[in-house]
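We were asked to recover a plausible sequence for a given structure. The inputs and outputs are reproduced exactly as logged, with field labels preserved.

PROBLEM: sequence recovery
POSITIONS: 93
GIVEN STRUCTURE:
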């Protein structure tokens, strides 16, 4: 799955959610997905919270095959900045 496809799935789930704040999913050389409010893009920019993970793990989270909290506890996901934003996204993804 390409980063734009992942962003598209996130865009669908966030539509009408009222989410505020910004979270960047940084998959290194594979690219980024930036959520800024209900807007989702693949542009790299500063965010209130940055979540670093492998692209395969991000795909699994979006597909519902990997629980974000479990991934964090297993060390597959690292978060920096406002962690409360990442926790709020957990329910939406």
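RECOVERED SEQUENCE:
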């Amino acid at each position: 799955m390409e980063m734009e496809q992942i962003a598209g799935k996130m865009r669908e789930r966030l539509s009408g959610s009222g989410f505020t704040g910004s979270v960047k999913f940084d998959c290194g050389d594979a690219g980024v997905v930036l959520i800024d409010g209900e807007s989702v893009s693949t542009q790299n920019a500063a965010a209130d919270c940055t979540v670093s993970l492998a692209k395969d793990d991000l795909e699994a989270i979006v597909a519902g095959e990997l629980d974000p909290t479990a991934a964090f506890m297993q060390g597959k996901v690292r978060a920096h900045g406002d962690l409360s934003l990442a926790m709020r996204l957990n329910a939406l993804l």
